[in-house]
Amino acid sequence: MLDQIFQTPKPKIITGAKYDWELVIGLEVHAQVSSKAKLFSGASTAFGAEPNSNVAFIDAGMPGMLPVINEECVAQAVRTGLGLKAHINLSSAFDRKNYFYPDLPQGYQISQLYHPIVGEGEVFVEMEDGTARLVRIERIHLEQDAGKSVHDMDPNNSFVDLNRTGVALMEIVSRPDIRGPEEAAAYVFKLRQIMQYLGTCDGNMQNGNLRADVNVSVCRPGAYENYQNTQDFKYLGTRCEIKNMNSMRFMQSAIEFEARRQISILEDGGTVNQETRLYDAVKNETRSMRSKEEAHDYRYFPCPDLLPLEIEQDWIDELAAKLPELPDAKKSRFMSDFDLSSYDASVLTAGTENADYFEKVAKKRDGKLAANWVINELFGRMKKDGKSIINCPVSPDQLGSIIDLISTGDISGKIAKELFEIIYTEGGDPIVVVEKRGMKQVTDSSAIEKTVAQIITDNPTQVEKAKQNPKLAGWFVGQVMKAMDGKANPQVVNKIVAGKLKL
């Protein structure tokens, strides 16, 4: 597997006015569970509905309404835990997190503080430079989402939309194992990728279906190693939480700013206060939201309306047996079966749609050639047009047919690119297009010999130069290809040129 041998990335070093500092980061990722109904009600979770249209009585906080747990939400949490190689707890329980907020009409959030459904796991996070880190997962718990307060519709009033209220969330809590902004973004990307493969969360950050609270602290070099050896948090600095990050780019900027803010305070002899902060993307700064000292005001206690959640190992095993192939396993298989580089395999397995498309193209074909066409030609062209594989104008069969025409020698690489552009913009069967437009490669040696002979006759000076420097034979090959509109077989041309020049 990919995680058997790897180099750990070096921690991010930030140079202060007086000292060097290291970053320590832990994340709480909130992932909306992919389900048709909410965690404790039958109300729809469809995005984009009219405000307050997807609301059941219990979501609205009506008296006497009791929660009924959605089994599919539980199953999705278990699947996610299995995908993260985590321990699944056969017994878990729900708690009430009591606090007042306008878009939470119940006056409390049903969550899992003391007994989460999923215990410790791990995520293998690869970086672009080839290094990788195993990030430990502390827990995954289920909880309700809150609603949405809207403040920009009226200068004097705020409005509340309860459509999201009660939607199931998985809160995935990591250990403070992440050591830089790039690692944090890569970790969130990997989590999203795994959940998309599992079908447990769509990972849409723009819609708020995936967002992260980022805990940032700084420490002097050497302190983190003491923490790792002892697991004693006293060696780490005071952390501040940056709430609701829904952009990986902004997440990295927020971490950078927050780290430098804390360093400035510490080097001036001050103390970092543990607090929750918000990131302002316009000003590129974090600002205080509330003190963490008030956390006890949440007043957690066991939810009296819900019995402990008991699940059976047989049910877990049944879910495990039906899990799809996950990104790391698929990447390893692509590297093995198709002889791909780690980079190419990573690109092709970034999403399930990309991977499925490639596999269809590469079936019974040269894997490297297929990967080159999918990544460079297809993905490059779609990126230019702002398209994704979901609305790709070229089917796997069409691209596969182009590759077949190259492999059989019917078309050259140059003609193949012209053919690809035709299929991309106009559609059609590549084989038929090649025949109708006369794009088939010339393999008739007599026709090629005639062209070569003519070019040699017309360029005696170049002939003498080529005899002194055989590398200049390429000039004749280029002239022949130009004279024959790129339709001559390059291998045949090279052979005939070398023979005529007696190289």
Distance between the termini: 49 Å
Tell me the β content: 15-25%
Gyration radius (Cα, Å) is: 30 Å
Looking at the structure, what is the overall shape?
elongated
How many domains make up the 3D coordinates?
A: 3
Please outline the major beta sheet. 9 strands, mixed
| DSSP helix fraction | 25-40%
Mean pLDDT: 92
- Which class of secondary structure composition applies to the elements? alpha+beta
How many helical elements? 16
Poorly predicted runs are none
Work out the number of β strands: 16
Structural account:
With 503 residues, this protein is α+β, with helices and mostly antiparallel strands. It has three domains: 20-315, no CATH class; 323-436, no CATH class; 445-501, Arc Repressor Mutant, subunit A. It is 39% helix and 18% strand. The protein is built from 16 helices and 16 strands. The chain has helices at 71-83, 181-198, 223-230, 248-267, 313-321, 327-337, 342-348, 352-362, 367-385, 396-407, 413-426, 430-436, 445-458, 460-468, 473-483, 490-501; strands spanning 13-15, 20-32, 91-92, 95-98, 108-111, 121-126, 132-144, 148-150, 159-161, 168-174, 210-219, 240-245, 275-280, 285-291, 301-302, 309-310. The strands form four sheets. Strands 1, 2, 6, 7, 10, 11, 12, 13 and 14 form a nine-stranded mixed sheet that branches. A three-stranded antiparallel sheet has the order 5-4-15, with no helix packed on it. A hairpin with a 4-residue loop joins strand 1 (13-15) and strand 2 (20-32). The longest helix has 20 residues, at 248-267. The radius of gyration is 30 Å and the shape is elongated.
